[in-house]
Amino acid sequence: MPARNNRDIIGGLALCILGLFVGSYAWFNYDLGSIRTMGPGMFPMAVGYLLAIFGLLTIIPALMRPGAMPEIKWRSLAAILGGIAAFALSIRTIGAAPAIVLLTLISSRADSRLGIVGALILSILLTVLIVIIFRYALGIPLAMFRNPL
Questions:
Q1: Rounded to an integer, what is the distance from CA 101 to the centroid of its chain?
Q2: What mean pLDDT is predicted for residues 84-102?
Q3: Which of 4, 15, 82, 97 makes an SS bond possible with 55, Cβ 3.0 to 4.6 Å?
Q4: Residues 27-82: pLDDT tens digits?
Q5: Higher local confidence (pLDDT), 146 or 2
Q6: Torsion of CA 104, 110, 115, 118, to 10 degrees
Q7: CB 9 within 8 A of CB 56
Q8: Once rounded to an integer, what is the mean pLDDT over residues 119-138?
Q9: Whole-number Å distance between alpha carbons of 4 and 16
Q10: Contact criterion met (CB below 8 Å) for 103 and 90
């Protein structure tokens, strides 16, 4: 049995699963319309199925290439998922600006090269950038700060 590039196989499978889920969800839950008058489900369905095709195009050549099994870095995985969870749980209660700071500070622990001072500077810059983009450039009424009490 030939060696396989497991990293690309796993990545391709993830793309296939995500693409099939998004495409099928859009197909069954949104109005697709027609090619002439596209409905709100046409674009997500097309993107989902294209993502699944790209996943297959990643898997097929990976079956013929050698590669090692990727090592999972649990600390990085926990930091990234923890940052996303903190953002999702806090944006409605304390607002977007503190939620972005939480997301950045927790996610920055995934890599040990960025110290706490660098993470604080990064979180402040990202928060300012988000305020400029969403509030002023796009005009989206996003609550930047909220009182949780």
A1: 17
A2: 93
A3: 15
A4: 999 998 888 888 888 999 999 999 999 999 999 998 888 777 778 789 999 999 99
A5: 146
A6: -30
A7: no
A8: 91
A9: 18
A10: no
Q: Which amino acid is at 123?
A: S
| Of 85, 94, 66, 47, nearest in space to 6 by CA | 66
Instruction: Give the separation between CA 13 and CA 8, rounded to whole angstroms.
Output: 8
Q: Which residues contact 18 (CB under 8 A, 6 or more apart)?
A: 48, 51, 52, 55
- Residue 38's SS3 state is strand
29 alpha carbon, distance to own chain's centre: 22
Helix (H/G/I), strand (E/B), else coil: 88: helix
pLDDT score recorded for residue 3: 64
Q: How far is CA 63 from the centre of its chain?
A: 27
Distance (Å) of CA 98 to CA 76, 102, 103, 136: 22, 6, 9, 18
Question: If pLDDT is split at 50, 70 and 90, which confidence band does 115 have?
Answer: confident
In contact, 6 and 70? CB cutoff 8 Å = yes
Q: Give the Cα separation of 42 and 133 in Å (integer).
A: 28
